[in-house]
Amino acid sequence: MSGCSTVPPASHPAVPVPGAYPLALAAPAETAVQMGWQDFFTDTEMRSLIYRALDNNRDLQAAAARIAQARADVSISGADLAPQVSGSAGMAKVGVPDALARMLRDDTLTSYNGLLQARWEIDLFGRLRKLQAAARERYLASAEARRGLATSLVAQVAAGYLADREYAERLALAHETLANRERALHMLTRRYEVGSGSKIDVTQAETLRTQAAAEIPAIELARAQNRDALAVLVGEPIADSALQHSLAQVGLTQQIRPGLPSALLANRPDIVATEHRLRAAEANIGAARAAFFPSISLTGIAGSSSRDLDGLFGAGTGLWLFRPSISLPIFTAGKLRANLRLSEARRDEMLAAYEATIQGAFRDVADALAQRHWLAEQITTIDQSIVALSERSRLAQLRYDAGRSAFLEVLDAERDRFSAEQKRIQLRRAWLASGVALYAALGGGFSEPEPQRRNP
User: Fold this and answer.
1) Which terms are listed as keywords in the entry (predicted)?
2) Looking at beta carbons, which pairs linking 231-238 to residues 24 or more positions away fall under 8 Å?
3) CB distance 29 to 255 below 8 Å
4) I need a labelling partner for 369 at 20 to 30 A (CA). Which of 27, 102, 144, 378 fits?
5) In this predicted structure, what is the pLDDT of residue 259?
6) Distances in whole angstroms, Cα of residue 287 to Cα of each of 52, 116, 123
7) Distance between CA 212 and CA 168 in Å, rounded?
């Protein structure tokens, strides 16, 4: 029987995998798989949104339905391996020619029957087993796809929450800056009115106030759009009371060890799902090859047939039939060969998709590591820059108050400091988001394909 195998050889290529990630953490730390998402996302507001998203997100619900479909498909394909048994009961009435009616002394023939039928296809060359294996691999792929979608959903909700907190802090800074500039404008206007100031100083102060005021609607618009996107992810409207914490309160400062690059092949749901699809395509090739061989089936019928309903199943009414059969394709106009080529082409497509998924996964991890490293460097630099800009602004104000410089110097210093403070908030949010991206790129912390809700 080993010579009848139709299973194609494994097509998994040797994918180039680097020995280590660039800029990877050298210090001891947990990997993303060891750290469950509830342990990584410790902020209560963020976790509440994530739980709501896992419960309500429509894409996740659709993915769960696809798993149920694939599970049913496995059961359907597995049923073909077992004997199929059915029962039937019927009545037939046939009118006969007059000559025959005179012989039978009746112009109709009536027959009642009750039959039990069984049919079994002997899967000698493995066609049915290969179809069942392909269905099983598709089911496993759909389960991993849902796990990947859940991981992506958690990361998107976390990123959306961080963006909202960034906009809130930038708005608070913009309102505070606007209030300070309105006070400065009021003071310079009074000076001009009493003759101790110039009109140009008032104009410059008004320009500074207008710039701060113009920043507020732009941030409000971006925040509203982000809030709408976050509501779609969560699956329901989000109240303002659910978004109150600052960026400093959300945590996400844990160190994550990427682990070995080869471990990514087993941890990333999209890689595992694509591998299952590749195996399903290989199993379909085996089924297509088995279609060239004979199909053997056994059919059996047992039951009773009688001219009278009352006599059905009586003595002498039993009947049976046993019919083994073999069917061999002789001429199919190239259909079987075309089906085999189609299966092989789909396998090649899945193989290319598998390699591309691996390459994309390694890039995601490398990008997240690079962001984590260089954003931290930028934050350090801008912190130093803000210290210098604050001192510059203080000195410029002292020089202006002493009459040693124009208000334009104060204007430039304040504008640069405001821009730097806004940039620092953005960088802090981006650094926190890079941790979320790294966690998701490494496969996240869903240990099961179908994560179940837990109360926070």
Assistant:
1) Lipoprotein, Membrane, Palmitate, Transmembrane, Transmembrane beta strand
2) 233/53, 233/57, 233/153, 233/156, 233/157, 233/160, 234/49, 234/52, 234/53, 234/56, 234/57, 234/157, 235/52, 235/53, 235/55, 235/56, 235/57, 235/58, 236/52, 236/56, 238/49
3) yes
4) 144
5) 74
6) 43, 31, 11
7) 15
C-alpha to C-alpha distance for 115 and 83, rounded to whole angstroms: 16
Asked if 80 and 128 count as a contact pair (C-beta separation under 8 A), the reply is yes
Query: CA-CA distance, 285 to 291, in Å (whole number)?
Result: 10
Closest Cα partner for 138 from 127, 130, 126, 150?
A: 130
Write out pLDDT tens, residues 46-67. Answer: 989 999 998 898 888 899 999 9
What residue spans define the domains of the chain? 2-81+127-293+348-441, 86-122+294-327
Residues 6+ apart with CB under 8 A from 170: 215, 219, 422, 425, 426
pLDDT category at 31 given cuts 50, 70, 90 is low
Q: What is the mean pLDDT of residues 256-270?
A: 81
The residues facing 299 across adjacent strands are 119, 323
What's the CATH class of domain 86-122+294-327?
mainly beta
> Under CATH, to which class is 2-81+127-293+348-441 assigned?
mainly alpha
- Of the candidates 145, 157, 155, 150, which has an alpha carbon nearest to the alpha carbon of residue 446? 150
Joined together, the tokens standing for residue 258 give: 């990427």
The dihedral over CA atoms of 348, 349, 350, 352, expressed in degrees to the nearest 10, equals 90
User: In angstroms, rounded to a whole number, what is the distance separating the alpha carbons of residues 118 and 298?
Assistant: 8
pLDDT digit string, tens, across residues 63-93: 999 999 999 999 999 898 899 999 998 888 8
Mean pLDDT of 192-204: 81
Average pLDDT, stretch 300-323?
Answer: 84
Sequence-distant (≥ 6) Cβ neighbours of residue 336 within 8 angstroms: 288, 291, 292, 329
